[in-house]
Design goal:
The protein is an alpha/beta fold. It is 39% helix and 14% strand. The chain has an 8-stranded mixed sheet with strand order 3-2-1-4-7-6-8-5, sandwiched between helices. Strands 11-10-9-12-13-14-15 form a 7-stranded parallel sheet, with helices on both faces. Strand 1, helix 1 and strand 2 form a beta-alpha-beta unit. The longest helix has 20 residues. It is globular, with a radius of gyration of 31 Å. The N and C termini lie far apart (68 Å).
């Protein structure tokens, strides 16, 4: 007989199931059986489990239909178990390293117990800032084994089933299984503690629980919340039948009704039947209230007294008052300055302007990127819409004369933000901006992610420190209605980095439309504007920002590089937009184009791109022109910033690690040979999927005009596109 039986339900968590199973099989203590519970032999989870059963005889799967729910799956696993002790592990959680060895050692120290409670970590889905909610409670428990009466606050109803190890014979002898369908942990935990005679605690984290981005499914709106009352009644009925003494009944009663009141007062959990829920809860409260019980103080005590008296009207009024106060607080204090707050709050009470679109790019740095491209196309397809671009005071000059704008922080700024039906941004609007019902927020993004983004940055200290609060970041993400992507890689990474309820639009980046629509004349015009000498090959050097560096350094001696590659070339230097230093500066063989208003124009002018890890490579690849990666600090960048794939394994062209190697690929011509073209073709297949020249049209029709998806122009296949011609090169 194995020491432990570990039951792992798998319904709805097949994507993380392998992590749970791996965490068990990797334990240093190996005397266990692992029981995955699958929906059916042909279910997706069964395919995952099949590989484990072939490799390890300790894996013995069983099946439970989805209709039986979590309770049925756990009960099925329990009945199949033969180990001395049973641990219930959810399929999207993991065992901490050394967990089973710690449990075995604790059992050996305290002797035979019915239940061994242990600590657990609740980790946010991005794996940062974990909490240990059981630790304060277990810290107060007696040392060694003890009877539940010695520590009445350990009722079991406030701890999940996977936060304890249970003696299998105890569960079998007492005929304890998982009751009901929802809130089954409440009923199971209560029944276990009522029947247990000898328990102990382990003050060590055993299970790491991943909090879902949208929270616990039990907290979602629905009629299932009435089952919380079923579980409450079940546990209290058994407690009374058992003659539970008052010192144990009081904490059990209070912990159960703390959950009941939280549900009754929550504005969204009960979408219907709130009055019936309250009345039944009130009846249970009066029926099972322990003799001499005194309501707690404060607002919770008021709720207790209203529940005891059955005063639903007063309870509803209290709840409405709290909600009104919360809404008022949410509206008023956010913009700085009392006068601004009041004006913004007043504007929010006015109707939405159905024809107003507010655009912003790069936190107000100017008229640029995807928002500018969408604005230009909207003028053509939706001329009835009024557009306002938001810019910082020093960026007003970048706005074309015929484009309406508002300076960020001004009275007009808050007015249009409050009333606009559509809000379009390639970054995020300020935290103070309220997402009004009926408004439409479009996030266009401003690049394809090679480096980690959003909440994926949480595990990289240097980046996380600069990012600030991830909770605030995700609150901004929750305002999005649509998120734009240019390739399937971006779709997957954005969903991982910015999970929310928004809809993903795989339409391509509007700013990249020009790469398929520009003519040879356009290329010549841009080169003349930038001061590129006629007949010279223009190499665009565009390094990215380093989170671990201060200020801008090219990382490459451009003068020495130009000297090494010969007179046929000039270099267009475009620093990251963090280091925009004003207007373009020409002259000599190094032309600083950092301040040029359009990165798209700069790309059109360039015959080839030299970059390190900048997302400009993904956009430039649409032109099907040579790209050279200068990766002098790849290992440092990868470790400090984090990346989504190994660029060295999937480069868009030649890779150089030193200035000498970089100069060599231009001297010997390998920067534009067949091998480089082959690498570029594979890169384009993966990252240029949706940028076909019609992205802006698709966005305007779907988001601003509300056309159905079926009428949106489809993406033109990559092989059928004709990128803008280069000035001095012929594409392969």
């Amino acid at each position: 007989m194995p020491r432990f039986s570990i039951v792992v339900p798998s319904h709805g968590v097949v994507g993380r199931l392998s992590l749970a199973l791996d965490s068990v099989l990797a334990q240093s203590f190996g005397d266990f059986e692992l029981i995955p519970v699958c929906d059916a032999p042909d279910a997706p989870a069964a395919d995952v489990v099949a590989g484990y059963t072939e490799r390890d005889s300790r894996v013995t799967p069983v099946h439970s239909p989805p209709s039986a729910g979590l309770a049925g799956a756990r009960t099925t696993g329990l009945r199949a178990a033969v180990g001395g002790h049973v641990l219930f592990l959810d399929g999207d959680d993991v065992l901490a390293p050394g967990a089973l060895a710690a449990l075995d050692a604790r059992l050996s120290a305290v002797g035979e117990v019915d239940v061994l409670y242990f600590e657990h970590e609740r980790a946010p889905w991005w794996e940062g800032e974990p909490t240990n909610p059981a630790a304060p409670l277990l810290a107060k428990a007696p040392d060694g084994a003890f009877s539940p009466g010695r520590f009445p606050k350990l009722t079991g109803v406030a701890l999940p089933a996977w936060s304890a190890l249970h003696r299998r014979a105890f569960l079998t002898e007492q005929d304890i299984t998982f009751p009901g369908e929802h809130f089954t942990d409440v009923g199971f935990g209560g029944l276990v503690t009522l029947r247990a005679e000898r328990v102990a605690v382990l003050r060590t984290v055993v299970v790491r629980h991943l909090l879902r981005r949208q929270g616990n499914r039990l907290n979602l709106p629905g009629e299932h919340h009435t089952e919380l009352l079923d579980q409450t009644e079940l546990v209290l009925t058994r407690a009374v039948e058992q003659g539970l003494p008052g010192d144990r009944l009081v904490p059990l009663f209070e912990q159960l009704f703390a959950a009941v009141l939280k549900t009754a007062a929550h504005p969204r959990r009960l979408t219907s039947g709130r009055r019936a829920f309250f009345r039944r809860a009130s009846a249970l409260y009066r029926q099972y209230r322990p003799a001499g019980h005194r309501a707690p103080g404060g607002s919770v005590g008021v709720q207790h007294r209203l529940l005891a008296s059955g005063s639903y009207a007063a309870f509803r009024a209290l709840r409405a008052g709290n909600r009104t106060a919360s809404r008022a607080a949410a509206l008023l204090p956010r913009p700085r300055g009392l006068r601004t707050r009041l004006r913004y709050a007043a504007a929010l009470r006015r109707p939405l302007d159905e024809n107003l679109v507010v655009y912003c790019a790069y936190w107000g740095r100017g008229y640029a990127c995807n928002p500018a491209a969408i604005h230009a196309k909207a003028r053509e397809l939706a001329p009835h819409l009024r557009a306002v671009f938001l810019v910082e005071p020093d960026a007003v000059g970048s706005v074309p004369p015929d484009v309406e704008y508002a300076v960020i922080g001004s009275r007009k700024y808050w007015e249009v933000l409050a009333r606009a039906k559509y809000l379009v941004n390639n970054a995020n609007f300020a935290d103070a901006v309220v997402k009004r019902p009926g408004s439409v927020h479009l996030q266009t993004q401003h690049g394809t992610p090679l480096k980690t983004m959003g909440a994926d940055q949480a595990t990289y200290p240097v980046v996380a420190a600069a990012t600030g609060s991830f909770a605030r970041l995700l609150a901004r993400v929750d305002r999005w209605d649509y998120n734009l992507t240019s390739n399937r890689h971006s779709t997957e990474m954005w969903e991982r980095a910015f999970p929310s309820a928004h809809e993903t639009l795989e339409y391509g980046y509007p700013r990249n439309d020009v790469y398929c629509t520009a003519s040879a004349e356009d290329v010549v015009r841009v080169r003349e504007e930038l001061g590129v000498p006629h007949g010279k090959k223009a190499l665009l050097y565009a390094p990215t920002h380093r989170d671990y560096a201060t200020g801008f350094e090219t990382g490459l001696d451009l003068a020495a590089f130009c000297e090494a590659i010969g007179d046929d070339y000039v270099v267009l230097l475009r620093a990251h937009y963090f280091y925009d230093r004003g207007a373009s500066r020409g002259g000599g063989r190094i032309i600083d184009v950092t301040g040029h208003r359009s990165s798209e124009d700069v790309c059109l002018a360039a015959d080839a791109l030299i970059t390190d890890y900048s997302s400009i490579m993904f956009d430039y690849a649409n032109l099907d022109r040579p790209i050279v990666v200068y990766a002098d600090d790849w290992d440092v960048y990868r470790e400090t910033r984090g990346v989504y794939f190994d660029l060295m394994e999937l480069p868009p062209g030649r890779v150089a690690r030193t200035p000498g190697e970089l100069a060599a690929v231009f001297r010997d011509g390998s920067w534009a040979d067949e091998s480089a073209a082959s690498l570029r073709a594979a890169f384009r297949e993966r990252f240029c999927q949706f940028d076909d020249g019609r992205a802006a049209e698709r966005v305007v029709r779907r988001v601003l005009l509300g056309e159905p998806p079926a009428l949106i122009p489809p993406v033109i296949p990559l092989a059928e596109r004709a990128p803008a011609p280069a000035a001095t090169l012929v594409r392969s």
